[in-house]
Known about the structure:
Blueprint: E1 5-9, H1 15-22, E2 27-31, H2 35-42, E3 61-64, E4 75-78, H3 93-105, E5 111-114, H4 122-135, E6 144-147, E7 167-170, H5 173-183, E8 192-193, H6 197-227, H7 232-239, H8 261-271, H9 277-287, H10 289-303, E9 312-316, H11 331-341, E10 345-349, E11 361-363, H12 366-369, E12 376-381, H13 386-391, H14 393-397, E13 400-408
Amino acid sequence: MKKYNICVIGLGYVGLPIALILSKKYNVIGFDINKTRVNQLIRKKDVTLEVESNKLKSKNIQFTSDSKKIKNCNFYIITVPTPVNKRNLPDLRSLKNASKIVGRYLKKKDTVVYESTTYPGCTEEVCVPILEKYSNLKLNNDFYCGYSPERINPGDKKHTIENISKIVSASNSVGLQIVKSIYKNVTKKKLVISKTIKVAEGAKIIENTQRDLNIALMNELSILFKKLNIDFSEVLHAANTKWNFLNFKPGLVGGHCIGVDPYYLAYKAKKINFDPKVILSGRRINENMFKYIVKQIIKKYQNLKLSHKNRKILVLGLTFKEDVPDCRNSQSIKMVKELLHNKFKVFAFDPLVKTEIPYCKIIKNFNDLERYQNFFDCILFSVPHKNFINKGFQYFKKFKKDNSLFFDIKDTFKNKSDFKL
Length: 421
């Protein structure tokens, strides 16, 4: 039986868990160009909070930012970010650079598997030609390629990689057998085999596009029912009693998956002259929800005959979702900028965020927050971290002035809010 030395390229939310699982059976090189990230992992520290320190002690894994150390590997898994640029077009720079790095060391009979989310066709049309160019090898004659879409849900300790179904695909039947032999060690669930790489790419991208569209529908309905003076949370509660009702809720959609993947699919659609009306309409609704919320705050001030200019507002939560430190494509941060643009004096509190946010006053911990009792004209509860919920409504109420406003976007504290979606 062939001995596999595995290299995982990209040690973020996706790559690190895979590298650690595979290190139970194989020698693994965990490679990342981010030297700070690599040094943190060497010191047994994961700033994403996805992996505990004791799980970073595997003797079969070596973390490095030196590409020369991957040359003896023969099975490569690429898990680098695939964001969009300012025009919401796919930014494939990390994917291309990772392919170049692997291509320089690729040998005959090696296998390369991509996990990064892409549009259907990207692996074979963009990545494989780079591998071939830098290795002087030919796909299927000399090496194999596969695609296994990531399904990591940051902050979710239940649906971890070991406990979810894993889709696998490859460039030919020989490659598929190799990919299956490795990935059967990644998950306890049965592998889902896709006939082609394009099918696997398509499955991944519609998973998040479907969620984006369902949330967009709920967001639009929440706006409509507010105009009708009907409590939308009560409407949802009643509708959810039907057996086949999909229990999606309105909210802010950010992060590096749901708020990004539909743009990849729309990009591919336009490349073949297909106009994806529904996909992009959902994106437009979700991308503008932070502006809608700020407008509702200003409207509330106007109804109370209060000026919102220079009013002190506390925004609770800056990350893209609860219980993760990740601020990528955070709609809460966009909301902070919109509040500042509308002359609010903004204070922000999120103990999970360690980086500086330059355009507003940051409160770093609960002890510092205690100084601001009876200080704010408005509190905006944006991200329901567990440590916020555990504190309870009465705790945060003491930081409001008398007769000030409390906006609870997700109605976390149930009917305590002056506004909810």
